[in-house]
Write a structure and sequence with these properties.
heterodimer; A: 221 residues; seven-stranded parallel β-sheet; 8 helices; 38% helix; B: 112 residues; three-stranded mixed β-sheet; three-stranded antiparallel β-sheet; 2 helices; 6 strands
Chain lengths: 221, 112
């Protein structure tokens, strides 16, 4: 006997993500899910952002890693309120884990919450956490073939930060190829070429973030 | 290994349906979009491990990947999306809109 169901899988995660999204909307807190390979510079970008514009935006961070609270310590040192989720082996965060972390950082009183996902270009893209936008970081040393190899992650991105742009003269990396590939996956993707270490290009990202946080807060007022 | 969470979600759905049908499941078909791929072998490995001792033990999963389609903005033809060869097979234009990716679905369960 065959039974046709056509039931959505992972609907528990989706239901929880919808609740998180409502929480962020009600509190006018802009939530960004930051996804990349390990070592692309997510933590450095977030820390630099907190250092440079933390006086203009109240920023909190939910850190996801398989082990250790190294990243939470780093962003706290930069001045952010932060909570670490240790996934103990799981390769991505779930919406439920994020719900649990929000009260720990007093997310309702913040302007922006960054969720720094576990470093991985595959699994995090399948799990909606309730964010308003996805930020994907691609660093120059990773190579220019990553959008073609991991299209799912790049197709669902709203912002692409091409990090470590200060290294571009030393590495065989075609910016044109990256931009052409991501534009074919997502024509309206916002792209910023940055170096979180030198500060190059970061102002464009800050302007986008502040405008987006302002628009989002204004929507409900 | 996000297949583990997917497997858990499938087990919950099959178990609920098995109770409703009062029957033992033997196979199920899953479909997914190309941007959200699920590896059939890895999914079955995770599923077997979690299903042990439940009504789902012994159920075999098959995964069907639904091709991502895009629609040519010039001639309107719909074709499979290929990042390495994005030109429309009809008119050669590379200006197109990607259609929504297929969702992750438990399409069908076969009961004994």
């Amino acid at each position: 006997m065959k039974v046709a169901l056509n039931k959505k899988i992972l609907d528990k995660n989706t239901e929880c993500a919808i609740r998180n999204k409502a929480f962020f909307r009600d509190n006018k807190t802009l939530c960004l899910n930051v996804i990349s390979s390990p070592g692309s510079g997510k933590t450095t970008i977030i820390s630099k952002t907190v250092t440079d514009i933390g006086d203009k935006l109240k920023i909190g961070v939910v850190e996801g890693d398989i082990k250790t609270d190294i990243d939470a310590q780093k962003v706290r040192a930069a001045g952010a309120v932060a909570v670490q989720i240790e996934t103990r082996g799981a390769c991505h965060l779930t919406a439920e884990q994020v719900t649990g972390a929000l009260s720990a950082i007093g997310a309702g009183d913040l302007d922006v919450v960054f969720i720094e996902n576990v470093g991985n270009l595959v699994c995090p893209s399948a799990f909606d956490l309730g964010e308003q936008a996805r930020v994907v970081v691609l660093s120059v040393p990773e190579g220019d073939d990553k959008p073609a190899k991991y299209p799912g992650t790049f197709a669902k991105a709203d912002v692409l930060l091409i990090n470590k742009i200060d290294l571009i003269d030393y590495i065989d990396f075609s910016l044109d190829r990256v931009i052409a590939d991501v534009r074919s996956l997502k024509p309206k993707l916002e792209i910023f070429q940055v170096s979180a270490t030198t500060g190059e290009g970061m102002q464009g990202w800050y302007d986008w973030l502040q405008a987006r946080a302002r628009d989002f807060a204004g929507q409900k007022s | 290994m996000h297949e583990t969470m997917v497997a858990q979600s499938i087990i919950e759905a099959i178990t609920a349906e098995a109770q409703k049908q009062q029957a033992r499941p033997i196979a199920a078909r899953i479909s997914c979009g190309q941007l959200n791929p699920i590896n059939e072998e890895v999914l079955n490995f995770a599923f077997e491990a979690i299903a042990k001792g439940t009504v789902c033990e012994g159920t075999k999963l098959t995964v069907v990947e639904i091709t991502l389609k895009c629609t040519c903005k010039k001639c309107g033809r719909t074709h499979g999306f290929d990042i390495y060869s994005p030109a429309c097979p009809g008119c050669g234009s590379t200006d197109f809109d990607i259609n929504p990716d297929a969702p992750l679905l438990l399409e069908e369960i076969e009961f004994e």
